[in-house]
Every structure is written in structure tokens, then in C-alpha cells.
Amino acid sequence: MQPRETEPHGKRAHDTFRAVGSLPPLPAVALRVIRVAQDPKSSASDLAMVLAADPGLSATLLRVVNSAAYRRTREITSVQEALVLLGFIQARNIAISSAITAHYRPDSLNALFRIDAFWRHSLAVAFRAAELAGRMRVDVPGAFTAGVLHNMGRLAMFFGDPAGMDQAVAEAMRRDAALDDVEEELLGIDHGEVGRLLAERWRLPLETREAIAGHHGRGGREPREGSLAALVAEADRYCVGLGLLPGYVVPGRAAAGADAAGLALLNQVGRLMQLVSGEPVGVRG
Length: 285
Ligand SMILES: [Fe+2]
Hints:
By secondary structure, this protein is mainly alpha-helical. The chain folds into two domains: 79 residues, no CATH class; 173 residues, Hypothetical protein af1432 (Orthogonal Bundle), CATH 1.10.3210. It is built from 15 helices and no strands. Helix 4 packs across helix 5, helix 7 packs across helix 14 and helix 7 crosses helix 15. Bound molecules: fe (ii) ion. The site of fe (ii) ion (FE2) has 8 residues, from loops.
């Protein structure tokens, strides 16, 4: 039997908790891409089949492969061919990122919490976690997906209470503190807990759920060494160190002191965001 969800105390936390239900569900195609990408037995043709079945994703992939960045002499019109030309890993990264990010783009511009900054941080964590996973010979696509999804709880909180999230960002900036600490204090619930609820509803793989819920190791629950949660936590710290804050920008902090690897990561993220959105980075559609 499914355990009952325990509602937190306090009106604000209660509202935030209820707002989890207002976040649109993860699109079915995103779940299929995640499953195929994480199944070691799946091949490029399995991924092509999933992508070809979704008009939005097929269009994105074809737009990318025909974009100026790839300079083709003829137009590519089949998903299968696009996948061969882009390579499995690049196509998978574009598919996962596009399936998830395209679905959660709020219409209104918030004063401080910025969806572009939010996705830039999440994608950077995804790339870094995948790189760490490769070094440790653990599930690379699983690490990439967990990175993209790790702060979904915060996105739900933003959708549920945009003014509250802006207030938390303002306070984090004023105190030069981590948003993770401030949001719990002001909103009464932290994004790991909200993310846990979402991940359960979406029936994500157990390790992904643990990474979303436990990447900050709150309440004395440090992520287990070598786990996906620990990789995401390490990648998260690295990206914050590069100035990629989770949903806002502090002027002057971006890329300060980044070494060659950090600058390469920033470029990789900018490029993926541009490929996925089809727009110059930072411009809202
Ligand atoms: Fe986080």
C-alpha cells in the first residue's frame, strides 16, 4: 500500500505542498526517453523509435541536425538519420533535456527567480554528474537524467508560490546564503522533500528518486558514498562554485575563477540550451 503523504505544518508550507499537484506531470515521452536511455540493453534504433513517435521531439532533433551548427549540404528529414549524425549520446542529451525543459516554461517573467538560470544550473549538474559517473563506471545516462531532474521540487515550489520563491531568492542574495537554506526557512519546506513527492508520483527509478530527494543530505541523511545522490550533490557544489546558481544570477559571480574544465562545461551547457530552445541563450520564447 502506498504510504500516505504527510502534510507539513504551517499555512505557507501547506500551500506549497498542495502546489506540487499543480506542476504539470512529466510528459510520457520524457519518461520513455529516460527509460530507453537508462536501459543498457537499448540501442540507437530503440531511441529513434521513441523519438519518432513524438512530433515535438522529432521536430527539435531535425531542427538541431539541420541547424547552422551542423552545416549539412542537404536537409535531413528522418529521425533515424539525425540520430546517426548527431551520435547516440548527443541525441539522447538533447532528447532528455528537450522533453523536460520544453514542458516547464512559465509565461510570466519573475523578478528574481529565472527559469533560464534554473535550467542552466540543472543541465550543468547533469553534464558534471554524467562525467563523474563515467569516471566511477556507474550509470552515465542515469546520472545525466538525475542531474536534469534534481531540482524539480524547486520548480514545483516556483509554480505554486512564485512570489514566495522570489522572496526566498531575494533573501538568499541579501544574506549571501544558499537558496537551499533560505527556502526551507521562509517557505517551510525544502525542495528535496517536494522533489521526493514528485518523483514518487512520476514513478521514476529508485536511484533517481533518491538523488532528487537526498542530494542535499538534509536531516543528517548524507547521500551514500558512490550513490547517484552523492554524484549529484558533488556536481551541484561544483556548478554553484562556477557561479551557476539554481534559478537566479548574482551579477559578477558567473564563471569567476572557472578553470579550463569549468569553462568547457559552461560552453557545453550554453550550446545544449541553444540547440534545445533554438534561440540565442537567455532569450525567452
Ligand atoms: Fe538542490
